[in-house]
Automatic annotation (TrEMBL), chain A:
TM ranges: 12-33, 174-195, 202-224, 244-264, 285-307, 346-365
Protein name, entry field: Maltose ABC transporter membrane protein /trehalose ABC transporter membrane protein /sucrose ABC transporter membrane protein
Domain ABC transmembrane type-1 intervals: 168-365
Naturally occurring in which organism (per UniProt): Mycoplana dimorpha
Keywords: Cell membrane, Membrane, Transmembrane, Transmembrane helix, Transport
CDD domains: TM_PBP2 (cd06261)
UniProtKB/TrEMBL annotation, chain B:
Protein family per UniProt: Belongs to the ABC transporter superfamily.
Primary location: membrane
Protein's membrane topology: Peripheral membrane protein
Protein name: Maltose ABC transporter ATP-binding protein /trehalose ABC transporter ATP-binding protein /sucrose ABC transporter ATP-binding protein
Alphabetized SUPFAM superfamilies for the sequence: MOP-like, P-loop containing nucleoside triphosphate hydrolases
Native source species: Mycoplana dimorpha
Any one GO MF annotation of this record: ATP binding
SMART domains hit by this protein: AAA (SM00382)
Ranges of residues in domain ABC transporter: 4-235
Keywords assigned: ATP-binding, Cell inner membrane, Cell membrane, Membrane, Nucleotide-binding, Transport
TrEMBL record, chain C:
GO cellular component terms attached to this protein's record: plasma membrane
Protein name as catalogued: Maltose ABC transporter membrane protein /trehalose ABC transporter membrane protein /sucrose ABC transporter membrane protein
Keyword Chloroplast: no
Coiled coil location: none
Sequence ranges assigned to domain ABC transmembrane type-1 in this UniProt record: 109-325
Topological relation to the membrane, as annotated: Multi-pass membrane protein
Keyword terms, alphabetized: Cell membrane, Membrane, Transmembrane, Transmembrane helix, Transport
């Protein structure tokens, strides 16, 4: 291999993979970086410039005349426009018509005879022969090169003000039970389909494979009607967490059964027979042998189901509703796209909060996910 | 009296008949080996005895009681599988204790029996290990230990050695022989396609072919007096030489003319009506001797010499079309390719089968 | 937090209830038809009966859920599609007649066809290429993980990510969307990409391709690695070039897997709804069936007849793949 590394063809391979990887990672990276930027910077420059200094036209009031001091018979106000931050002033002015009339170090004559000097480091001085009046400071316009600023403010804002925190809890509330509840149900069914003999087994397996691809859209309207009916009958709301858990369970079962059945059917037959000779019943065999041995498949399914329920939008808005109280993260994000479409600091931070949990799950348990993918797609001939 | 009786046992998978009526009496403490070529139904028969496969027809009696419909765990059997079938997520101890735990034996009893079995099989050191941390031979011993712990009346083995390498196979075979000796009251039924295992382990061998019994008997009896051509050629390696022949003289001894012109006289009595019938003449390679006498059985040209040191195999062409006659001569022989050699054999070691393959001795 | 606590408690209750059901039904069955300790014909009769019933006990909860959540809705949807908006009055095929006369529906069908043509093909092709390329470099696994990662991201999250990529600022001001920044860097004029009729469909498809290529890559990579090494070595000895080996030796051997990947993505495309909802909500001629169906479910208080009719159309599109899958699966399990 090492000999081939230097051939031109292999350089092409490296470069093209690098390009593809860039295409696949940069969009997410852009989102993450942007969500951490100062919101003023985020709105005016691309995230790829986040590490370089940005030139901004700013305005700042000088300290109020009350802070003037007398020095050598003159009255002086001084301070710093950049307020201790790093950066440099490249031009300044005192009117909005000419915000960059003077270069740093020059002295501008204000209308009332006061003299304004701004230096490159942002320090300024207003000098007057007479005591200055008033309580409001002079407005100073300046152009400054500001170094990059990163902050968690965006996250603070969306978590406190935009309802993201509540939606986060809602998403967890939907996803965790929807992941756990189907596992046992599916596992028993899968065991029966894999290892028990009964008439109609082949047909049932075919039905499960068929249901694997039934579009969710088919189920929405009938189930919505059903839920409304049941809700009215029992005198409870139609849109509840229990309802959505059961819905997610129903929609997830075909994959769960298919995945687990395939895995269980691959376990060695002699182990089951040995257990049977040892006196184990079907129930014993399932609980004591098959279930522990199927852990990898169970884990695969659980990851799938968690990602699917966490990332789902459709089932959540149909069966849980779109009220402020019930919105899950995906639904909240869609709402924000509508109402705060231009506020990228809010969108990026919210989006990142939405995708961080699945990303963690993904990176931690990727191995099981891949295994599940390989087992879960119907094999072709 | 823990005997095992098979009465006209039959098995079909759907429309395919696999076992065509097996009758067999097995005495308590006997070591029975089922041999036969792959696919002849050995495993199916054993699994029917175990209760893992439903019996399509006939009766299976253990201890005089019909057990066709009794679940495996209540038949008093234990089984050792080809792939060991250890529970991968349980330690050696748990593997051996599993059956007793299902049966809700007391903790002390379980412990006592597991330790006793582990002791016999030198597994005490490994009790806390998972199967994947054991070697093939150790796994096989655990499988045997698990079976011992069940205290079975009948011990079933399905090709237990075929996943082991050659050296381990011999060692484990000897181990099983010892075990059988120690558990003299336990009936053992052992399935293999390996005739060496069959010959060395069995009290009686059952030779199966295509779902029926060819012959039952003690190993040497089958070797010396095969009932038919199938058994004759199945046991012994290299297989018995078979030459088409026709009967020329009958009486207290029988004379046949072999294909290719030679004649042979066998110590077998035949009825006069047999004269002129076509038959198959058989002689084992190890029964052939080189001779320089005029009184030889046949003469042929050596086409291949395989010198193995302890024996020399000579392949002789020209007697039977397409199939060489093989002679297995002890020691190193100064025979060269292309040489013409004369062979002879003791009369009592010659075999003759009629045109349906049945031995004249067994008639 | 109390809500989460409630969820966890209910979840445990649910799991315990399931466990209890399985235990109790199994115990009951052994009680009603005992075989342990008995002998003779009665025991064997009981054994036969209970082993005929037991599988159904094991499967009952799953079968019930499947029936309620997937099987019944299929039939009910077909029924509703023949009824009016409230689902009470039978209207025959008039929902379907309306549908085929509706401009928005025809737009959706057209767009769905575009999606069906482009997304599975591009995802599978890219997945195959990436799988083949990454198998030959030392950092291939890292590259694969990075390309696989979008699988974990929700469609809505991905929509936000890509909306940011496509972000548009008027000409002259600094672009913060990377696509327009690149366009202006190379001297072009910035565009509001997702409002460009027809072409905007492709900008939406990019999102699904971005998500699904990882899936295709993982499966195809495993298939490629399953190809016997000897066939490749034989081809090398026969003097085949790298590309020839790839297209003439490797690809034909994993044809089945390619078909599987293709159909899986096709199914997903038919169901895609979140991306369109989040990016355009069907404006600027980007409507697709799934979003249109969702729209009709709630539009003007909800027209269940028309919504169901659209759902039936989606189902009909899925049926060929369903049959193909079932045939594959039964062939595979036939011997078992
Ligand atoms: N479950 C089954 N279904 C159909 N045919 C089977 C089954 N099990 C075994 N057979 C057939 O029965 C015959 C005997 O098999 P087996 O008992 O396993 O042979 P062996 O002597 O090699 O152990 C074979 O032809 C095999 O194909
Ligand atoms: Mg066998």
């Amino acid at each position: 291999m090492s000999g081939a590394t230097r051939s031109p063809l292999s350089i092409v391979v490296h470069l093209s993979v690098l390009l593809l990887v860039a295409l696949w990672t940069l969009p997410t990276a852009g989102l993450l970086i942007s969500s951490l930027r100062d919101k003023d910077q985020l709105a005016v420059s691309g995230w790829w410039t986040a590490l370089s200094t940005s030139t901004q036209n700013l305005v700042q009031r000088a300290a109020s005349p009350e802070s003037q001091v007398e020095k050598d018979g003159k009255f002086v106000i001084f301070g710093n426009l950049l307020e201790g931050q790093k950066g440099s002033v490249s031009a300044f002015g005192y009117s909005s018509r000419e915000p960059a009339a003077f270069a740093p170090g020059q002295t501008a004559k204000l209308n009332d005879g006061e003299q304004l000097t701004v230096r490159a480091d942002g320090s300024y001085e207003i000098v007057s022969d007479t005591r200055m009046e008033g309580t409001r400071g002079q407005r100073i316009f300046f152009t400054a090169a500001v170094p990059p600023r990163f902050t968690l403010d965006n996250y603070r804002e969306v978590l406190s003000a935009e309802g993201i925190a509540a939606s986060f809890v809602n998403s967890l509330t939907v996803a965790i039970p929807s992941t756990i509840i189907p596992i046992l149900v599916a596992a028993f069914c899968a065991y029966a389909l894999a290892w028990m003999r009964f008439p109609g087994r082949a047909i049932l397996i075919a039905v499960v494979v068929g249901l694997l691809v039934v579009p969710l859209q088919m189920s929405l309207i009938p189930l919505l009607k059903l839920y409304n009916g049941v809700g009215a009958f029992l005198g409870v709301p139609a849109k509840t967490y229990v309802g959505i858990w059961l819905a997610h369970m129903g929609f997830g079962l075909p994959l769960a059964i298919y995945l687990l059945r395939n895995y269980m059917a691959g376990l060695p037959r002699e182990i089951m027979e040995s257990a049977r000779v040892d006196g184990a019943s079907d129930f014993d065999i399932f609980v004591k042998i098959v279930l522990p041995l199927s852990f990898p498949a169970l884990a695969s399914f659980a990851i799938f189901q968690f990602l699917w329920t966490w990332n789902d939008l459709l089932v959540a808005i149909v069966f849980l509703g779109t009220g402020q109280e019930q919105l899950v993260l995906t639904g909240r994000l869609v709402n924000l796209l509508g109402s705060r479409g231009g506020n990228w600091e809010i969108l990026t931070a919210s989006a990142f909060i939405t995708i961080i949990v699945p990303l963690i799950v993904f990176f931690a348990l990727q191995r099981y996910l891949v295994r599940g993918l390989l087992a879960g797609s119907v094999k072709g001939g | 009296m823990t005997g095992l009786v098979l009465k006209d046992i039959r098995k079909s998978f759907g429309a395919v008949d696999v076992i065509h009526g097996i009758d067999l009496d097995i005495k308590q403490g006997e070591f029975i080996v089922f041999v036969g070529p792959s696919g002849c139904g050995k495993s199916t028969l054993l699994r029917m005895i175990a209760g893992l496969e439903e019996i399509t027809g006939g009766d299976l009696l253990i201890d005089g009681e019909r057990v066709n419909d009794v679940p495996p765990s209540q038949r008093g059997i234990a089984m050792v599988f080809q792939s060991y079938a250890l529970y991968p997520h349980m330690t050696v101890y748990e593997n051996m204790a599993f059956g007793m735990r299902i049966a809700r034996e007391s903790r002390q009893e379980i412990d006592r029996r597991v330790r006793a079995a582990a002791e016999t099989l030198q597994l005490t050191k490994y009790l806390d290990r998972l199967p994947k941390a054991l070697s093939g031979g150790q796994r096989q011993r655990v499988a045997i230990g698990r079976a011992i712990c069940r205290n079975p009346k009948v011990f079933l083995f399905d090709e237990p050695l075929s996943n082991l390498d050659a050296a381990l196979r011999v060692a484990t075979r000897i181990e099983i022989a010892r075990l059988a000796e120690r558990m003299a009251d336990t009936t053992m039924i052992y399935v293999t396609h390996d005739q060496v295992e069959a010959m060395t382990l069995a009290d009686r061998i059952v030779v199966l072919s295509a779902g029926h019994i060819e012959q039952v008997g003690a190993p040497l009896e089958l070797y010396e007096h095969p009932d038919n051509l199938f058994v004759a050629r199945f046991l012994g390696s290299p297989a018995m030489n078979v030459i088409p022949a026709s009967v020329t003289a009958t009486g207290a001894t029988t004379t046949v003319e072999l294909k290719g012109g030679a004649t042979a006289t066998l110590a077998i009595a035949t009825a006069p009506g047999e004269a002129g019938k076509s038959a198959s003449f058989g002689v084992r390679p190890e029964d052939l001797r080189i001779t320089t006498d005029g009184d030889f059985l046949f003469e042929g040209t050596v086409s291949i010499v395989e010198a193995l040191g302890e024996v020399t195999l000579l392949y002789i062409e020209g007697l039977v079309e397409g199939e060489p006659i093989i002679a297995k001569i002890p020691g190193i022989q100064p025979v060269a390719r292309g040489e013409s050699v004369r062979f002879t054999a003791e009369r009592s070691k010659l075999h003759l089968f009629d045109d349906s393959g049945k031995s004249y001795r067994a008639r | 937090m109390p809500q989460l606590l409630f969820a966890i408690v209910t979840m445990m209750a649910g799991v315990l209830a399931c466990a209890f059901y399985f235990l109790a039904s199994n115990w009951l069955l052994d009680r009603i038809f005992p075989s342990q300790g008995l002998s003779g014909p009665k025991a064997s009769r009981n054994l036969r009966i209970s082993s005929a019933i037991r599988p159904w006990l094991f499967m009952l909860p799953a079968l019930l859920a499947l029936a309620v959540y997937l099987v019944y809705p299929v039939f009910e949807s077909v029924r509703l599609s023949l009824h009016d908006r409230s689902g009470r009055d039978f209207v025959g095929l008039s929902n379907f007649f309306w549908m085929f006369g509706d401009g928005e529906f025809r737009q959706s069908i057209f767009n769905n066809c575009l999606w069906l043509l482009v997304v599975p093909a591009v995802s599978t092709f890219l997945g195959l290429v990436i799988a083949a390329l990454t198998d030959r470099i030392w950092w291939g696994n890292i590259a694969k993980t990075l390309i696989f990662t979008p699988m974990a991201i929700s469609f809505v999250g991905a929509a936000v990510i890509w909306k940011f990529v496509y972000d548009y600022r008027a000409e002259g001001s600094e672009q913060i969307g990377i696509l327009n920044a690149l366009v202006t860097y190379f001297g072009g004029a910035p565009e509001a990409w997702i409002t460009l009729p027809f072409w905007n469909n492709f900008f939406l498809m990019v999102i699904l391709i971005w998500i699904q290529t990882g899936f295709a890559m993982v499966i195809l990579s495993a298939a490629l690695r399953g190809i016997p090494e000897e066939t490749l070595e034989a081809a090398v000895i026969d003097g085949a070039s790298g590309l020839q080996i790839f297209f003439k030796i490797m690809v034909p051997q994993i044809r089945g897997t390619i078909a599987v990947v293709w159909t899986n993505i096709t199914i997903l495309v038919l169901k895609v709804f979140d991306i369109v909802l989040a990016m355009t909500n069907g404006q600027w001629q980007t409507q697709v069936l799934a979003n249109l169906m969702f729209d009709w479910m709630f539009r003007g208080g909800g027209d269940f007849g028309r919504g169901a009719a659209i759902a039936v159309v989606i189902m009909v599109l899925v049926v060929p793949i369903m049959i193909w899958n079932i045939r594959n699966a039964t062939r595979e399990t036939g011997g078992h």
